[in-house]
Inverse folding.
């Protein structure tokens, strides 16, 4: 046991000695800029913040840190070349400091040297040569009990510049550029946790294959811009500050919300252009899928939804909510498996299309417009009245008795409703509900004990006071009919039928249920 303990003790000593040796070999010398002078002058630097120590002998030695401080505005009056392993430049020391690289002189760094920007530090780059960016201090949102305001990088050239891939806090791209100048963001990941200000004018923006990520843990504003890929990540709400276009992909990431406000999002990409993991807040915005190629329309809530321009596939899961206007594509559109819910708070138009699932959740109601609409799976009436007529009709082609659900006194069809019924029924126990009424009240009609021929039958029911106008296509027989009224019928009420308005009435009879207001 003593031998084993002694061996472990010796190994521990060796490890500690090695650690101390390595730490010492990588020691860095910190130099601070003086309040006066240009940064490319060795004599304006001191290894003491009080200027009482020596200046560096070279800007190219290894393991040197140059902290730009002691003045709110610092610059250079000649090219400044900085190199060396383990060497870096830091703009600011926690106080306000703006280091400007002028257009006529460059900060030239070796591959191993980076420029960090500390809290409250500003790096303004007017030169076309962009130094390697390192750690850019991330601030806290306004209103937090913290003095951290983060770092700022300003690209302020008068000509072409390439925006470096980095995680920025505040990013500003400004300047009245020269004719034919270009701002390049190709193949770059640009992360912004604070503000992004694309203010440069008189230039060509090249964003191909770039990705902008707004990833502050606090609320952010996404400015008007032509993004290639746009992501929201990390948390809080990202609100549009203007109209945007997304050339390729839009991603709304986990625990983040994208609030479109009253602006327009134009989606130009093909295929699956929207990834929705977080929350989309449509407010009063317009989302346009404008590609001429095949595009999947993501299932989420919209205010105005425009899918015109090319072939479209509505996502065959979840619900596509439309609160105001739905503009369909004039090209081939696949609705199979999808659900559209018209869920606004002012009356909406429902275009005459071949829906799979159609829902209404709008107390103000809706109208079928521009022709005959069909529902191939399920019609769900949650709230609001759908208005139809002979030209703007609604037909549920799914012959299942359960293909129409939730009709009630606050949600029904005001006008004709057509339903398919299966072939070869024989006194079926199923009930085919026709939730119809007029502009004022709900007058439900139900078919049961239905028998049909060898082909699917179609029944159309419309309430035209005091009649339920019924048209049948195909063989239908032995039907038992019940109706519901807005007010309880008298005990002597009964159902009758006539071949035409004002024609001879033939009594069917029926049992009155005063409590259920039905016969």
């Amino acid at each position: 046991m003593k031998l084993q303990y002694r061996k472990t003790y010796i190994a521990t000593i060796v490890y500690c000695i090695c650690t101390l040796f390595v730490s010492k070999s990588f020691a860095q010398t910190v130099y601070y800029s003086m309040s006066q002078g240009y940064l490319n002058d060795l004599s304006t630097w001191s290894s003491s913040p009080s200027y009482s120590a020596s200046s560096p002998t070279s800007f190219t030695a290894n393991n040197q840190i140059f902290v730009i401080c002691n003045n709110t505005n610092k610059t250079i009056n000649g090219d400044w070349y900085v190199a060396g392993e383990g060497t870096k430049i830091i703009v600011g020391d926690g106080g306000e400091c703006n280091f400007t690289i002028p257009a006529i002189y460059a900060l030239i760094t070796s591959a191993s040297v980076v420029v960090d920007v500390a809290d409250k530090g500003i790096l303004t780059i007017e030169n076309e040569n962009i130094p390697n960016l390192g750690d850019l201090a991330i601030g806290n949102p306004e209103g937090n009990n913290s003095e951290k305001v983060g770092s700022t990088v300003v690209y302020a050239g008068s000509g072409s510049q390439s925006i470096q891939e980095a995680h920025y806090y505040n990013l500003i791209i400004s300047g009245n550029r020269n004719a034919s100048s270009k701002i390049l963001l190709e193949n770059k990941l640009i992360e912004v946790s604070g503000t992004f200000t694309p203010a440069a004018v008189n230039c060509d923006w090249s964003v191909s294959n770039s990705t902008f990520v707004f990833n502050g843990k606090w609320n952010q504003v996404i400015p008007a811009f032509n993004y290639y890929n746009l992501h929201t990540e990390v948390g809080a709400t990202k609100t549009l500050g203007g109209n945007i276009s997304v050339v390729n992909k839009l991603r709304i990431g986990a625990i983040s919300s994208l609030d479109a406000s009253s602006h327009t999002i134009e989606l130009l990409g093909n295929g699956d252009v929207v990834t929705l993991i977080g929350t989309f807040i449509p407010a009063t915005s317009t989302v346009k899928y404008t590609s001429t190629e095949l595009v999947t329309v993501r299932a989420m809530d919209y205010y105005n939804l425009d899918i015109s321009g090319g072939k479209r596939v509505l996502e065959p899961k979840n619900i596509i909510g439309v609160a105001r206007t739905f503009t369909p594509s004039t090209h081939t559109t696949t609705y199979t498996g999808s659900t559209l819910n018209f869920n606004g708070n002012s009356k909406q138009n429902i275009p005459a299309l071949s829906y799979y699932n159609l829902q209404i959740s709008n107390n103000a109601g809706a109208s079928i417009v521009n022709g005959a609409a069909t529902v191939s799976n399920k019609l769900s009436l949650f709230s609001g009245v759908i208005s139809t007529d002979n030209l703007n009709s609604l037909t549920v082609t799914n012959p299942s008795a359960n293909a129409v659900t939730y009709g009630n006194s606050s949600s029904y069809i005001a006008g004709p409703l057509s339903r398919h019924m299966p072939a070869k029924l024989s006194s079926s126990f199923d009930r085919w509900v026709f939730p119809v009424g007029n502009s004022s009240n709900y007058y439900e009609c139900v078919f049961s004990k239905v028998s049909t021929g060898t082909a699917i039958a179609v029944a159309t029911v419309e309430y035209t006071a005091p009649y339920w106008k019924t048209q049948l296509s195909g063989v239908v027989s032995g039907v038992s009919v019940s109706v519901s009224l807005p007010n309880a019928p008298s005990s002597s009420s009964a159902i009758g039928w006539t071949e035409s308005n004002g024609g001879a009435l033939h009594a069917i009879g029926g049992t009155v249920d005063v409590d259920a207001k039905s016969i």
